[in-house]
Amino acid sequence: MEKVEGVYPIPKWITDYHKKFMLKERTRCFKTCSKCGETRLISRFPIDRRNPDGYSGICKTCKNKYYQARYARDKDRIKALNQKYQEKYREVHKESYQEYSRRYREEHKELFKDFAKKYYLRNRRAVIERSKKYYQDHKEAVAVRKKRYREENRDKIREYERKYRLSEKS
Ligand SMILES: [Zn+2]
């Protein structure tokens, strides 16, 4: 007897088994959203361990829509609330903050002075270089400014020079 492919019918138990298997796979790979009623791939559903199949009954698209709508609804409310809270906080703590920063400066005065001195010493060369360079680049403007200053403060300068000469003599 010659065997020809496709001639023998596939036994019913095999087709039944296949159908059942496919149905099982189908339900494993797809899910119908309880909100929009669409059947989608299981990956389109958020994971939810409270469900027996491990996925939420509502698809991601519907969930996102829900969150977006809620966010839009709450955005202004939350913004206004935050603003009000911040204003109140600032109002309540305004004086204590000012007092705090004043006391802090007062208590750390020496530290600040010391820091400024150290900064100057460490950066003296750079500061001098910078002013030298500024002078080089703005020679004319500096000269004009100096001249104007001398003209405007002639009396003051004369007085200063007189005092200086007196102190030189003594
Ligand atoms: Zn949906």
What does this protein look like?
With 170 residues, the chain is mostly helical. It has a domain at 1-92. 74% of the residues lie in helices and 4% in strands. A two-stranded antiparallel sheet has the order 1-2. A hairpin with a 6-residue loop joins β1 (30-32) and β2 (39-41). The termini are far apart. 2% of the residues are buried. The model has no long low-confidence stretch (mean pLDDT 86). Zinc ion is lined by residues 33, 35-36, 38, 58-59, 61-62.
Attached small molecules:
zinc ion
Number of helices: 5
Uncertain residue segments: none
Our measurement of the CA-to-CA distance between the termini, rounded to an integer number of angstroms, reads: 142 Å
Cα gyration radius (Å) = 43 Å
- Tell me the major beta sheet: 2 strands, antiparallel
Instruction: Summarize the helix and strand pattern as letters.
Output: HEEHHHH
- Class by SSE composition: mainly alpha
Q: Classify the beta-strand content into a percent band.
A: under 5%
Q: Averaging pLDDT over every residue, what do you get?
A: 86
Order of strands, main sheet, comes to: 1-2
Shape: elongated
Total number of beta strands: 2
Oligomer: single chain
What percentage of residues falls in helices of 4 or more residues? Answer: over 70%
